[in-house]
Amino acid sequence: MLDLHHIFAMQKKALFFLLALCALGWGFTSYxxxxxxxxxxxxxxxxxxxILVRRMDKFDRSISEGRKAxxxxxxxxxxxxxxxxAIAITLPQYFHxxxxxxxxxxxxxxxxxxxxxxxxxxxxxx
Length: 126
Prior knowledge:
Elements: H1 4-28, H2 32-64, H3 74-90, H4 97-122
Helix pairs in contact: 1-2, 1-4, 2-3, 2-4, 3-4
């Protein structure tokens, strides 16, 4: 299976591509708030995924050293999601709320798609 750091590197590449698409959508369509909301949500979602990667490393180290397992940072990731939604609620003239929430979930959609692609590529002969 792919390790979490490799998955995060792929996530960052996908995020940059998505941000470029959002910039084009923001500049050339009549829905700039929707694309701005997706971009903000995707940035916060990728930040949440980065927090998860860091916490999983700490978790793995503590388990391998026989220490008590540390928290996986759920409160911090939850707070980050609340911050993204708070930005969208506070500035509705710039960011669309629903698209911000959708943007928060995009890294997890990328993760799901990556796992499916990896499984299909490595299970061709089975």
